[in-house]
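Hi both,

Apologies for the delay on this - the queue was longer than expected. I finally got the NPW-bound model through. Below you'll find the protein sequence and the ligand SMILES exactly as submitted, and right after that the structure tokens for the full complex including the ligand.
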Amino acid sequence: MLTAYTSDEIRTAERALMALLPEGTLMRRAATALAVACVEALPRVYGSRVVLLVGSGDNGGDALYAGALLARRGARVDAVLAGKRVHEDGLAELTRAGGRRLGLSQGTSDPAVRALVDRADVLVDGLVGIGGTGALREPYAGLARLAAGAPGVVVAVDVPSGVDASTGEVEGDAVTAHLTVTFGAAKAGLLIDPGASRVGALRVAGIGLGPYLPEPGVVALTGPDVAGRLPRPGAESNKYRRGVIGVVAGSDRFTGAAVLAVAGAVRAGAGLVRFAGAAEPVRQVRARWPEAVTAVVSPGEDVKDVGRVQAWVVGPGMGTDDDAHALAASALAAGVPALVDADGLTLAARDRSLLRRAAPTLITPHTGELGRLLGVPADEIEARRLYYARRAAAELGVTVLLKGSTTLVAEEGGPVRVNLTGTPWLATGGTGDVLAGIAGAYLAGGLSALDAASCAAYVHGLAGRAAAGGPGGGEAPIAALDIARELPGAIRSLVAGG
Ligand SMILES: NC(=O)C1=CN([C@@H]2O[C@H](COP(=O)(O)OP(=O)(O)OC[C@H]3O[C@@H](n4cnc5c(N)ncnc54)[C@H](OP(=O)(O)O)[C@@H]3O)[C@@H](O)[C@H]2O)[C@@H](O)CC1
Ligand SMILES: Nc1ncnc2c1ncn2[C@@H]1O[C@H](COP(=O)(O)OP(=O)(O)O)[C@@H](O)[C@H]1O
Ligand SMILES: [K+]
């Protein structure tokens, strides 16, 4: 499990460790790791051009010490000093090593600064790290804009400047790095968009903080974590013991969502899929998935007549009228775990009592659906994903899987799980319906809502990458059903440790 922390948690651990070490030890460890990363980013160090963007704090200090190490290896190193203050010892070290400095008396439009940035093989962003607060101020913001056009490799020190290290929020300009070398432990904001998109490749450089870190507020499951949690059939399994999932989805107008949710459930390994809906989606599900047991539910009928299930998935494409409300309510009245998605969430936004259940409830909104549930604009949720995922879990008393460029799973009282698989090619109609089917199958298979949601997001992301062209994530359009098709292969390689 990858663990990630807020700036304050890192600082507390840092203080405890620093009290035991000679002064400057941690900064030297950090600078060495940073210099090594720069060396690896360069075809050769001798004669290369390294430009340091140096802020007033210790983040700038790291950059200066790393610059000194590179200068001693024969790089031409220039430090652009952005703050009114500078880490004096770091600057003295760089000067001793033959590095040069440039002030910003003429501002960031100074042609000399632009020329340096344009010719840099490596541009080191040491403007602000975990000490940053709010939007970048000038001249830092101007330097971040200049870095955006830099032709060289941009290496962020600890955090891309302008990204909130604790949350991933980005208020104004921010550096977009090719590589971020972060010290001691991952910061939560490096894993969560919009900040995560600025990080590039992430390297966590150990400096000895481990024993002093608290319980993390944010974690990410790795492949082995997921493989160890997935429900798998044993010798004594039968289809009922493996988990019967009930799916209430689709309507005479929207039939595809029903087919896609059932596809996710079948391919994720449900023991049996029971589908309940209107006549047309039932016809389509039967045609596409003969494995599913189907039942036409007429308005006013109770869904429990469909047969026993261990978990319900309620919502994709089911519509939002009174009949849909009655159908959703009858499924959610069951005392088994339930997943509520799509139209089910629109119904719940109008009638929150649908989510007040004794059995575990997992909701799987995108930012628009969560916005409707909380009465907050979707773009506000996109800007502050971590905050709103936590708030929704606390306010609604359910497990929340918030979809989008970063998928988060939140439950009150525990760490938020960030999903690290996936590809932007998943942003296409119907992929969320497949995800609902996968997570529902895992709920029916006996996983907790937290594990069902985070394992489903992980395998959905792996299958999405495979559909887009390869395990590392190719670049090709995908259709939602492709994800279902790729699921067995993705799960096979995950379980095999591939
Ligand atoms: N943790 C560890 O284990 C280790 C940590 N280490 C390193 O120390 C770093 C933390 O250093 P830090 O505490 O000095 O803060 P830092 O990030 O340099 O920024 C502070 C200054 O930035 C400024 N500033 C702030 N916001 C701003 C804004 N929006 N826009 C513009 N300016 C802004 C503000 O300056 P002021 O405005 O007051 O002049 C403030 O004083 C950490 O990230 C890591 O790199 C390693 O060396 C060793 C191991
Ligand atoms: N930019 C993105 N990067 C990665 N994954 C994304 C992105 N946008 C959407 N997704 C994923 O695609 C799926 C879309 O689900 P959803 O919005 O419910 O679509 P639909 O309702 O059409 O099925 C979710 O799993 C979501 O996390
Ligand atoms: K930085």
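Main takeaway for now: Residues 10, 14, 26-27, 30, 55-62, 83-85, 128-137, 140, 157-158, 183-184, 207, 209 surround NPW (ligand 1) (CB under 6 Å).

I'll put the files on the shared drive as well.

H.
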